[in-house]
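Minutes, structural biology subgroup

Action item carried over from last meeting: produce the C-alpha cell record for Membrane protein involved in the export of O-antigen and teichoic acid (Marinovum algicola). EB confirmed the sequence was re-checked against the source entry. Recorded below for completeness.
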Amino acid sequence: MTGWAILLQWSRLGLSAAIFLLAARLLPLAEIGAFATAFALPKLLQTLHKAGVCELRITAEAPDRPIFLLSLATGLAAALLCLAATAVLPADSRPHLLALTALPLLNALAAPSEGALRRALRLHALALRTLAAQGLAAGLTLFGLMQGWGAWSLTGFALANAGLNAAFSLVLAPPRLTARGPALPLIPELARLTLRPLLNAATFPTVQFLIGLALGLPAAGAFQIAARLVELVDTLALAPLRYLALPRFKAMVGTAGFAAKLRQSVWRVALIVAVVYPATAALAPAVLPLLGPEKAQAALPLLPPLLLTGALSAVLMPLIQALVALGQSGLPLRLAAVNFGLSLTLLLPVLTHPQALWALPLGQTVAALVFLRQARTANATLAHRS
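Output recorded by EB:
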C-alpha cells in the first residue's frame, strides 16, 4: 500500500509541477503569470471536492445519489464563483479563467468515485488512473508548447487532466444513483471536512491572486515558479508520508505505541525537512537559471520565504494528523485559520515591498507558537489515550 500511495502522490502533484516548470522554460513570465493568476481560484476551490466530497464519501454512511448530487451542486457553485471572478482579473487572465470554470464541474464528477476507491483501499487503481491522466494531459501540453499555444498549453493541461481523471474515476467506481437519500443533512459534515483543508491550502493561491492584481502578470509568473518548485520539493519528500499519516495514527489510537509513533513521525519529518529544504535553497541558484536568466532573477529572491513556510508547515504535520486521529480537530482548524488570517494581515500592507513574502513564515511562526501552547492540554490526552 505504501508504494501505491507514493506513486499516487508523486503522479498527482509531482508530474504536474514538473510539467509546469518545463513550460516555464519556454514561456515568458507574463504568460506564466496570466495562467497562474487565472488558475489560483479554481486550484483553491478544488479542495471542496478533493478533500471535502471525497472524504465525505469515505466517512458518511449514505447512498451514492445524495453525495453525487451534493458534489454537483458544490461544483456548480464553485464554477459560478470563478465566472464572477473574471471581472476583476487582468485582461490577459480572463479568457483562461473562463475556460477553467469547467474545472470545479469536472472535479465534482470525479470526487464521489475517487472517495469510493479510497474507501475500498484501491490505491493501485487510483495511482494508475492518476498516472494515465497526467501522462496523457502532459502529452497534450508538450504538443501545445511545440505548436506555440503559449499559456493555453497550461490551461489545456489542467482541463485535460481533470477531464480524464473524471472519466477514469467514473469507469472504475461508477456511482449507484438508484439508491435515494437526503442530501441536505450531509452539508454540515461536508463543511466540517472542507474548512480546515481549504484554509490550509488558501495562502499560496490567495497570494498568487493578489500579486497578479497588484503587481502585474510578470510578478505573478515569478511567484508561481517559486511556489511550484516548493510544491515539487514537498511532493517528492513528504506527500506520501502526509497521505498515510492519518490512517496510521487512527489505527493506533488507544494503543500503547501511539505516543512513540507520534515522536517517531515528528523526528522523521524533521530530519527530512532539515536535509531537503536547505539543500533546495542551496541548489536553486544553479537550477533556476535553466529556466532562463530573467526568470531565475525574478524567482530566486522569492524562494527562501516560501521554502521556510513549507518547512514550518511540514514539521507541524505529524502533530496535526495525530490530533485529528484523536478526534481533536478543533486545534488544527484554529491553527489554519490563525495562520491564514495573520499571514495575510502581515502581507497586505507591505505587498509591494521586495521582501514582503517574509510575512508568510512570520505569520506561520506566530500561529504555530499559539497552536503549540494550546496543544499542551492535548498532550495529556495523547499520553492518556496511548
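Discussion: The chain is about 80% helix and 0% strand.
Next step: EB to file the record with the rest of the batch.
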